[in-house]
């Protein structure tokens, strides 16, 4: 349960963040959608397209290319890991937290956990060929990594006095999500969409189909942070 009523939503326009935004709005939270990325990036363009339907408050921060290398080095030194995914996510949430602070928002809610719990990653297509136990083993590994990574994210966002909250990584939600049959999440190794029950729930909640049925594009790719970080190293 998120106690603050005025919250930001880390928003890309994809099914996960749009569903979280819709649920938070419909349950009485004062939400502002927060999108970060380089100018012209997928997330900036797509989030604006989806919010034309939602009509929520939406703020965008375009990353300054001239400061990116300096910021990325600062973050790598702070989190003390060369793990590329961790660095990319911490950079992205650094900018999300910066945007939130500029708007007077102390709490940002994210959809982290959905891909881990509902077979959103492409790796689950390989795992399903080896059976349900392989999927559950992969899920456990990904959850452990995500929970640890979000602690690093909060260390970075703390520079701005902003808390990044992941309600879908709570013990209660993890237990619930694991009780849902795998067939509701992934069908076989050729399943390019996955997360089927999440997509159906999103449509029922009023998420536009262009978001609910969009293929996954991770934050670091949709924002162009991954591409820019690789070039800067």
TrEMBL record:
Start and end residues of each Asparagine synthetase domain: 1-132
SUPFAM superfamilies referenced in this protein's UniProt entry, alphabetically: Adenine nucleotide alpha hydrolases-like
Gene Ontology CC: cytosol
One GO MF term: ATP binding
Keywords of this entry: ATP-binding, Nucleotide-binding
InterPro entries in alphabetical order: Asn_synthase, Asn_Synthetase, Rossmann-like_a/b/a_fold
CDD domains: Asn_synthase_B_C
The keyword 4Fe-4S is annotated on this UniProt entry: no
Entry-linked Pfam families: Asn_synthase
Annotated GO biological process: asparagine biosynthetic process
Name of this protein: Asparagine synthase
Species for this entry: Candidatus Nitrosotenuis uzonensis
